[in-house]
Every structure is written in structure tokens, then in C-alpha cells.
Amino acid sequence: MTPLLSLRGVTRAYRGDAAPFALEVPEFDLDEGEALALAGPSGSGKSTLLMMLALAAPPDAAQRFSFAGQDIARYWRGGGRDALADLRARRIGVVPQTGGLLAFLSVEQNIALTQRIAGRPDAARVRALAEELGIRAQLAKRPAELSVGQRQRAAIARALAHRPALVLADEPTAAVHPELADVVLALLRRECKTAGAALLVATHDPDRAVRAGYPVLSCETHAPGADGVARSIFVRAPVAQAA
Ligand SMILES: Nc1ncnc2c1ncn2[C@@H]1O[C@H](COP(=O)(O)OP(=O)(O)OP(=O)(O)O)[C@@H](O)[C@H]1O
């Protein structure tokens, strides 16, 4: 089976005089419907990797970067910006750290937003997701009227409403208290599994991810070498994946 995501020899670097950083992904595959936590300390490049996987930031180099059967590396090399925007809108869902809900829309409209952008309205799915996530009674409210945990549930529903193939969550529990963090992580995993979506969660807390049932991929970090560049390496070989 072709993996949903397949990266080989992918790099992205921030140069400049102050604390240059390079992210290296020699090998990384993720199958359809798979869940994985990306663990690493602050500044290790988790957000940088998620931004690339969200097709929101280009790699500096890529021998291979494919997503959903599409050659992402080729799109970035030129002429594929519309295709990237279309893939982002239709096939990818994002759960931000603090929910990222729009204050002037109702919870229901917030959840439906990804459907509107993808051109696939489906009010029944919005209500069904809200039901599963325990926020059905909150749909008419504005985000400011929800608890922090309810907001994260709404953000999970929004990330799944348009039936994406991949959900990306960058520290989705950073703003919630520890007990609730376990619940949110477990819910995210359960909902993605139900929807058949692959899931990548960036976290600095691998133990919490393990408790919530995620396999964990830790990055290798290297202090600045002779060239002054700090490096982080994320490797996920297909062999290790099968083990
Ligand atoms: N736009 C940028 N320009 C220059 N350097 C950047 C930029 N964005 C991130 N960096 C640097 O790249 C490195 C990786 O940052 P990144 O945000 O990807 O790490 P992270 O693992 O997500 O951190 P955290 O857990 O604190 O969110 C850091 O050293 C950071 O300072």
C-alpha cells in the first residue's frame, strides 16, 4: 500500500546569523488512518515539520514528498500553488494549540467552516460530530461562552468536519489543565480513528501521548556543530513502523 505521506531526504532550515536551525527528515512514512505523536523538546522543530506537512511551508530540499498520491515536492518547485491550496482545504484538518475558533461565528458555524472552505457543506455531519464530542448543546453559542475543554472539542470537530485524510495537531493540549489534556488527546485519537483520518500530534510530553494510546516518534536533536547550526532529525523508517 502506498503511504498517505512519504518523505525522503526532506530538509527545511532557518539560516541567518542568530541561532540557525535545520530540520532533517531522511525518511518518514505515515499510512492512511495511522496515528502518531511527534515528540521533542521546545525548539526541536515539531511545528516546522507540521507546517511542511500541512503544505503551508515549502521544504528547502526534497528527494520525495508525496501526500495522497500527489507529488508535493513538484508542486512546490513551481506551478502547483493552486493544487497545494486545494489539497490543504480538502484533505487536511488542523487542531491549533488553543482551538483557534473564530469569535464572531457560532460554534456550529465554526465547525462547518472547513466544510465551507472545502466546498462540501454537510450540516448532519457537524451535528453528529458535536454529539460524539459532547458539545451538541453548545452549537448555538459563541466560542467565548464555552469552557476551554469544550473549545478544544469544537476545534477537533472542525478539523474533521470536511472528512480530511490527515489531521495535524500542534500541542493541542497546551492550554488545558493536565487531566483534561489526557481526555482531549484520547478524544482526538478516537475521532480520527472513527473518521479513518491519519493523525499527527506534536507534543513535548511523550508520556502523555503514550497514556492516550499513541505510538511516539522522538526526534534526535544535535547542538550546534562547527557550522553553528542546531539540527533536529525525524526518522521513521518503514521497517520500524511494521515492528
Ligand atoms: N520563522 C523562523 N525564522 C527563524 N527561525 C525560526 C523560525 N521559526 C522557527 N524557528 C526556529 O526553528 C527552531 C524550531 O522551531 P519550532 O517552532 O519548529 O520548534 P518546536 O519543536 O515546535 O518548539 P515548541 O515546542 O516550543 O513549539 C527553533 O530554534 C526556532 O527558534
Gyration radius (Cα, Å) is 18 Å
What is the CATH-assigned architecture? 3-Layer(aba) Sandwich
What general form does the structure show?
globular
What is the H level of CATH, i.e. the homologous superfamily? Answer: P-loop containing nucleotide triphosphate hydrolases
Question: Could you give the distance between the termini?
Answer: 16 Å
Assign the structural class, choosing from mainly alpha, mainly beta, alpha/beta, alpha+beta, or little secondary structure.
alpha/beta
Say how many strands there are: 11
Predict the CATH topology. Answer: Rossmann fold
Largest sheet: 6 strands, mixed
Number of helices: 9
Give the names of the bound compounds. adenosine-5'-triphosphate
N to C succession of SSEs? EEEHEEHHEHHHEHEHEEEH
Uncertain stretches of 5 or more adjacent residues: 239-243
CATH level 1 name: Alpha Beta
Helical proportion, percent range: 25-40%
Mean pLDDT: 93
Q: How are the strands ordered across the major sheet?
A: 5-4-1-2-11-10
Pfam families: ABC_tran
Protein name: ABC transporter ATP-binding protein
Family: Belongs to the ABC transporter superfamily.
Keywords: ATP-binding, Nucleotide-binding
Characterize the structure shown:
The protein is an alpha/beta fold and 243 residues long. The protein has one domain: Rossmann fold, CATH 3.40.50. 37% of the residues lie in helices and 24% in strands. It has nine helices and eleven strands. The protein has helices at residues 46-53, 72-77, 81-91, 107-118, 123-132, 148-160, 178-195, 206-211, 238-242, and strands spanning 5-14, 21-30, 35-39, 64-67, 70-71, 92-95, 166-170, 198-203, 216-218, 220-222, 230-236. It has a six-stranded mixed β-sheet with strand order 5-4-1-2-11-10. A five-stranded parallel β-sheet has the order 6-7-8-3-9, sandwiched between helices. Helix 7 (178-195) links the parallel strand 7 (166-170) and strand 8. Helix 4 (107-118) runs parallel beside helix 6 and helix 6 runs parallel beside helix 7 (178-195). The longest helix has 18 residues, at 178-195. The chain is globular and about 55 Å long. The structure holds adenosine-5'-triphosphate. Adenosine-5'-triphosphate (ATP) binds at residues 14, 19, 21, 40, 42-48, 204. Keywords: ATP-binding, Nucleotide-binding. This is ABC transporter ATP-binding protein.
